[in-house]
Amino acid sequence: MNHKIVVFGSVNRDHVYTVDHLVEPGETISSSEVHIYWGGKGLNQSIALARAGAPTVLAAKIHPDEDAGLRELCRESGVDDSLVRRADAPTGHAIIQIDRTGRNGIFVYPGANGTVDADDIGATLSHMEPGDLLLLQNEISRIPEIIAAAHRRGVKVILNPSPVSEEMRCWPLELVDILIVNETEGAALSREKTPEEILDWFKKQYPSGAVILTLGEDGSYYQDAGRRIFQSAFPVSAVDTTAAGDTFTGFFLARMLSGADTQLCLRAAARASSIAVSRKGATVSIPTLREVLEAEG
Questions:
Q1: 246 noted as active-site residue
Q2: Does residue 149 lie within any of the structural domains?
Q3: Cβ contacts of 246 within 8 Å, gap of 6 or more
Q4: Closest Cα to residue 250, out of 37, 2, 43, 68?
Q5: Catalytic hit among 14, 117, 246, 261
Q6: How many domains does the chain divide into?
Q7: In terms of residue numbers, what domain contains 186?
Q8: How high is the mean pLDDT in each 10-residue block of the chain (297 residues)?
């Protein structure tokens, strides 16, 4: 059976400001540029998956005013938008600062992303079969309920717990098949410091699940019950790291769904994210599978 990936997540309008440095408390600074892009971790990851060749469905909520624009973007990107629903709330949006080194600072207003209810959960999961993959983040409401309901249905749950929060430690993470965390998120959940300590904690706490730990320019790890695999990052001059993690997630899962070896999945994800950070914007920076293959030579 051919399985699909459903991304149940956020859609945002990103307002991106280019600044000399990230603003400090009490400080007012000028921005040299401003751009408005589509974003949100759910949308970013669904586009990354589709561009990496995976059959991808986006489940999300937006205001009707944004409906036509989002559906056009999904068509252009090869994302199935049949599970996008309208909400009587503004579409979520993010304010993003990008400094001269490519570092970012972000704050997000949930808007429609925070209106997910039991009806939305049931409608989304009714389209899924056992063995399908459900990819979640932490930019929509009711994530613990979604995890539990998906697990009961026999769906494989992948969670990228971003942004991380203290209450996540009480979520049913033992029902998650793959956790995808960066070093900051992994340290916050485990209360450990080094990558090795973080990975050891996850293995002890959730022995039946797998974890992917991304370390930015220091590479990434994949760990399951029997393996711990490392992948170095590809050197690149970063101009905008906004969608790096989302690109990594999308390409890893797409390659995994295609049956690729785990080491090759990590390598493709690392290569794709290195391309993404060399470009400005979120969804617009995500490469295609062809670009990644060409970069591999």
A1: yes
A2: yes
A3: 41, 44, 45, 48, 282, 286
A4: 43
A5: 246
A6: 1
A7: 5-11+40-91+112-296
A8: 89 93 95 91 96 97 96 96 97 92 88 98 97 96 98 97 91 98 96 97 96 96 97 91 91 95 97 93 88 90
